[in-house]
Design brief:
Order of helices and strands: EEEHEHHEEEEEEEEHEHHEHHH
Strand order of the largest sheet: 1-2-3-4-5-6
Distance between the termini: 41 Å
Number of strands: 14
Helix content: 25-40%
Structural class: alpha/beta
């Protein structure tokens, strides 16, 4: 593979990621909840940080940036639409805009919903998409700023990626997401199996992310509002996909 992808636990339940391009040796970190674990991983691997990619403005994704940059000066990339709430950006990107990490091409997607101006970053050659708090393992981010329609539109962009895409989300929420998912999709054998695997992983303190888009499409109820079983459970057989999605999100908020 022409890249390395490293998952770094931060704070109590956040994740940052390191992506390294082999051809150039350039390294990006995606989100900076805190500096210390990222600095430690860079030092252990002897890597020099080249870029910082920020997905959205929430404190638990940016608070470590100043301390990280103090040790590793790097170019900061984030959403143009969110630049007024992010730390100073060296590169402000919009929906569909491409940029590069060495030989790796990256493209930003506007995935507003959790926040307005949230971006996901897709790196085709790495078969990875950094989704933070938009598409999550067995879930999606709570809608603090956007609407259900916005989030459903955003998720459909991500659903259209190749099924073998690695979904690098921002939090270790998967066990609680699984418990909720089973309330709206109780007969999904793949979901039941995944839920058991998640419990086993967490019992050993192992991360449950990243996950594959194929797995999310099969088990994540927020990507499955067209599923007849989910619609029957919700009593929404004739509703639109967007309406079913909104009901699932509402139920999760109250779970």
């Amino acid at each position: 593979m022409p890249f390395d992808l490293i998952t770094i636990p931060c704070l109590t339940d956040n994740y940052a990621y390191l992506l390294r391009d082999h051809a150039s040796g350039e390294v990006a970190v995606i989100d900076v909840p805190e500096a210390e674990p990222i600095n430690a991983e860079l030092k252990a691997r002897g890597w020099t940080l080249s870029q910082v990619w920020l997905t959205h403005h929430h404190w638990d994704h940016i608070d470590g940036l100043a301390n990280l940059l103090a040790e590793h000066p790097a170019k900061v990339v984030g959403a143009k639409a969110d630049a007024h709430r992010l730390p100073d950006l060296d590169l402000a990107v919009s929906d569909g805009e491409h940029f590069s990490l060495g030989a790796l091409d990256a493209v930003a997607f506007d995935v507003s919903g959790h926040t307005v101006g949230h971006i996901a970053i897709y790196v085709p050659a790495a078969q990875a998409c950094f989704t933070a708090d938009s598409l999550m393992a067995l879930g999606c981010g709570r809608l603090f700023e956007g609407t259900p329609d916005q989030m459903w539109d955003s998720l459909q962009k991500l659903m259209a990626l190749p099924a073998d895409t690695t979904i690098c989300s921002g939090h270790e929420y998967t066990a609680s997401n699984a418990k909720f998912a089973l309330t709206v999709d109780p007969d999904n054998a793949a979901l039941i199996s995944r839920s058991n695997d998640i419990d086993n992983a967490r019992a050993r303190n192992l991360p449950t992310v990243p996950s594959s888009l194929a797995t999310e499409l099969e088990t994540n109820p927020f990507l499955r509002p067209d599923d007849p079983g989910i619609r029957a459970t919700l009593g929404m057989q004739t509703a639109t996909d967007a309406e079913v999605f909104a009901e699932i999100r509402k139920r999760k908020d109250n779970f």
